[in-house]
Design brief:
fumarase; 5-stranded mixed beta barrel; two-stranded antiparallel ribbon; single chain; alpha/beta; 197 residues
Length: 197
């Protein structure tokens, strides 16, 4: 396990240097989006209005308030990624996204896309929205504001994380590793429970 402080945008070589269980902190820009944004793009045929090439995507529907021409933070948390799994491969292939940040991981098709395009999944701690919000310095742009709170958000971040590399470009998957260890220990747990009865 290694620790890295990374500046966006990311390139393929950098992403391929990361491995499951590495810790990552991000400075620069990340883009927030969620279900409705991706449905608007991929299912309804609307091209994204901003380049994601080299940037991480944060799965979020932030709580913001409009103050004149600016959007101010209230709270910015992270949502579960699995329901957006089908959008991850085209985000990497078509739009050049280099990392997905979220909770719960993604499925095999997304892992294979990470191997092909040089990307990774960065897991964030659930329930840490208050800290996460302080690490987002500013909401610089909001694209497709009619979809708020599921628009596209350009966030400037400083010391965002730490995040754990949970899926990497080498086909490794921390979630699968944990599931395998659980399955391995279940017979012994069941045996002990039966004895205790």
């Amino acid at each position: 396990m290694a620790s890295y402080t990374l500046n966006t945008p990311f390139d393929e070589k950098l992403m391929r240097s990361l491995h499951v269980r590495d810790l990552v902190t991000i400075n620069g820009h990340i883009f927030g989006m969620r279900d409705k944004t991706m449905i608007h793009c991929f299912d309804k045929g609307n091209e994204l209005p901003v380049s994601l090439d080299g940037f991480p995507i944060l799965h979020t529907a932030p709580s913001l308030k409009k103050a004149g021409d600016r959007w101010e933070k209230i709270i910015i948390g992270t949502t579960t990624s699995t329901r957006m799994d089908r959008f991850s491969p085209p985000l990497m292939e078509k739009y050049g996204a280099r990392a997905i940040i979220g909770k719960s991981g993604l499925y095999q098709g997304s892992l294979e896309a990470m191997q092909r395009f040089g990307a990774c999944y960065l897991a964030i701690v659930g329930g840490a929205a208050a800290i996460e919000t302080t690490q987002i310095e500013e909401v610089e742009e909001v694209y497709w504001p009619q979809l708020h709170p599921e628009a596209i958000y350009k966030f400037r971040v400083k010391d965002f994380g730490p995040l754990i590399v949970a899926m990497d470009s080498h086909g490794n998957n921390l979630y699968a590793d944990v599931r395998a260890k659980v399955q391995e220990k279940l017979p012994e747990i069941y045996r002990k429970c039966k004895i205790s009865e």
